[in-house]
Every structure is written in C-alpha cells, then in structure tokens.
Design goal:
- Keywords: Methyltransferase, Transferase.
- This is Class I SAM-dependent methyltransferase.
- The protein is an alpha/beta fold and 212 residues long.
- The chain is built from five helices and seven strands, in the order H-E-H-E-H-E-E-H-E-H-E-E.
- The radius of gyration is 16 Å and the shape is globular.
- 41% of the residues are buried.
C-alpha cells in the first residue's frame, strides 16, 4: 500500500523495536503483522488480533492469520480472536497497539453485529488496560471533513481526526505525536474511500498516543 519511504516512516512513527510486544488490531491480509514480526524479532511477540465481530467474514480472517503464523520465521506471531472489548483477555501487556484504517469501524454497524454493544469508549479503555505504561497507541485512518465528526464512518468510511483525538484522550491517553506523511490535500473528503478516483490515495492522518 505504501512506497518504501512512507513505510519506513510509518514504522519509525510506531516506535516498535526488537523484543517488543505489538498488537495488530484487525490485521486484514496480515501485511502489518509481517512487518512487526520482522521488527520485534525472536524475543518479541506480535498478536494478530481479529475482532470476533468480523471473524465470520467469508475470507476467514482468523484462519488467514493462523496460516500466517505458521509461515517460516513467524514463530513470534499468534493469531487471536475475541470480542473487541475482551482483547486484553487473549493478549499480553503490549508496547505498541496498532490500528491501521480501522478506528472508524468502531462507529459502524460492522461492530454491532452479533449483538455486540462495544463502543469506541469501551474499546479505548480496553486498549488502555492492555498497554504498558509508556506504551504507544498508534492510529492511522481516512480523514473526514472538518466538522464531520464520526457521522461519515458508516457511509464514507472516514472519521474526523479531532473526534479520534477527543475519544482517545478521554480514555486517559496523551497525544505524543501526529504526522501528515499520508496527507492528500486533493482529497475532497466527500467520497467513499473505495471510490476508484481516491482509493489508495485518501487523505490520512496518523496519531501516536501514549499511556502515561
């Protein structure tokens, strides 16, 4: 998805390092799980966390991550799945919590299937519980227009950065850094992120929060 320079910058932004424990939330195809597996090395750990709310998808996200964990050199990867807010129950204390193009889904019907009642506030509290003091909570997502708040999470798969910051800080986190490395001023913010005219080129924001 990213060229090598942006990939390297994102890795630096995440502040993952050898020996760290990283939780990759809703890992998709597993690209970031593989990246972090290489970074943390044999003394580290990567949890490829598939929320139970999406485990039923036809592409079998849990099975895909279990297959990934069996790849040569991936002994440090563990595929886990449970309800979003129960994530601390299936993982160990983490140095980095990584959410790539997923946070907005906390405000969609996707997370409410199977009777799930988790809210973004509930999940952020679960993240706070699972991160070590000084740990990084890193969120990269598609930007919505100023003033949109969370209203376009379902329709356009976008969320206003200010809303993310407000919600995460309400859980006790402190903003440590933000980056414009993935910004795109030509994104009109009014079309769905999957539209061919903008897919892969959306205006994206990156935040790194710390647990005090």
């Amino acid at each position: 998805m990213y060229d090598q320079s942006k990939l390297s910058e994102l890795i630096r932004f995440a502040r993952a390092d050898a020996g760290f424990t990283v939780i990759d939330v809703y890992p998709g195809g597993g690209d970031w799980t593989r990246v972090f597996s290489d970074i943390v090395g044999p003394q580290g750990r990567v949890y490829s966390f598939v929320p139970a709310e999406v485990a039923h998808f036809k592409d079998d996200p849990v099975g895909r991550m279990r297959t990934l964990a069996k790849e040569p050199g991936r002994e440090n990867v563990e595929a886990v799945s449970t309800d979003l807010v129960a994530m601390p129950e299936v993982t160990q204390p983490a140095d980095v919590m990584w959410l790539h193009l997923f946070y907005h889904d906390l405000h969609t019907a996707l997370m409410q299937k199977k009777g799930a009642t988790a809210t973004a506030a509930d999940f952020n509290r679960a993240v706070y519980e699972r991160l070590k003091p000084g740990g990084s909570y890193v969120i990269v997502d598609h930007a919505a227009a100023v003033g949109a708040g969370t209203s376009e999470a379902q329709s356009l798969h976008r969320i206003e950065p200010a809303s993310v910051r407000e919600e995460v800080e309400a859980a006790g986190f402190v903003l440590d850094a933000e980056s414009t490395m993935l910004a795109n001023k030509d994104d009109p913010h009014s079309i769905k992120v999957f539209d061919p005219s903008i897919k892969g080129k959306t205006d994206r924001f990156a935040y790194r929060f710390l647990r005090p």
